[in-house]
Amino acid sequence: MTDWVLGVIGGSGLYEIEGLNHRRTIRATSPWGPPSDDLVTGELHGVRLVFLPRHGVGHRIPPGAVNARANIDALKRAGCTDLLSVSAVGSLREDLAPGAFVVADQFIDRTVSRPATFFDDGLVAHVSMADPVCSRLSSLAATAARAAGAPTVEGGVYVAIEGPQFSTRAESELYRSWGASVIGMTAMPEARLAREAELPYASVCMVTDYDCWRAQTAHVEVAGVLAILKSNAETARSLIGRLAAALPRDRPASPIDTGLDQAVVTDPTLWPPEQVRKLAAICPRRFASPA
Fold first, then answer.
1. Is the pLDDT of residue 178 over 70?
2. What is the pTM of this model?
3. Rounded CA gap, 6 and 136, in Å?
4. Which CATH code fits 5-279?
5. Fewer Cβ neighbours under 10 Å: the N or C end of the chain?
C-alpha cells in the first residue's frame, strides 16, 4: 500500500469504479448534511481509493443541489489525502472537440446560491485560491489521461455556472471573451472547499459538446451529450486506474496539506464550540473537538 488515499468525485456519466479490491461501502455522515451518496472504498493498484458519485447513483441530484460541503467533509473523514474531480463540460474553444479531456488549472465562479465555505457562524478563515488546483496531482492526471487514449490539454480555465439550464449564446460568447476554455456546473464551490479542507485537488474535465457559441453546431441537447458521456466515462475509468498505478509509493508532503495554518483570523478564545466540532474533520490538528 502507498501513503496516498485518493478520493475520486465522479461527475455525469461516472457513477462507479470497477476493479476495486477489498471493496466496501460506507454510509457517510457529515455535520454539513448528507453527502451525495454512499462512499465506495477499496484498493486499486496498491492505492486506497474512495469514490463518491457527485450527482448520486442514477444522477438524482441537480448541480445546484449538490451538497459540496458534505461531500468534501465526508471524503476527508474517510482519510483522503488528495482529490481527483471528474466532470462533464462544454467546450468554449474550437480546438477542444467532444471527447477531449482538459485538466483545468483555473476557475471563474459564476454560481450564486451555493454555500461556498466551511468558515461561517463566528469562525473566519481566508485561504488562497490564486492557484486553485494541485499542480502535482494535475500533472499526474494529465499523463494518465493521455495514456488512456484521451486527447488531453493540460491547463485551461473552467467557468462554473449555476445551471441547471445551459448558457445563452450571449453568455457563451462572454465567457469566450474572458479566455475560458470549458463550461460546467459543478467545480465550484467544490474546489474552494477542497482547499479549505487542505486537500490537494485536480479537475479532469471531459468535453461532451461545444457550447452554444459555435454557429455551425446544433445547440446543446441532452441526447447528444449522453452519447459522448458514455465513451468519456470508459476513458475516465482507465485514467483513474493508470493514475493509481503511477502514484509513487511515498507521498511527499504538499503545501496544501497545511493551508489553514495562516488562514484562520478569528481569535481562538472566540471560536464557537459547535463550529469547532463541525470543523474537527476538516483540520483536526487545528480544530480538535471539545471534550
1. yes
2. 0.95
3. 13
4. 3.40.50.1580
5. C
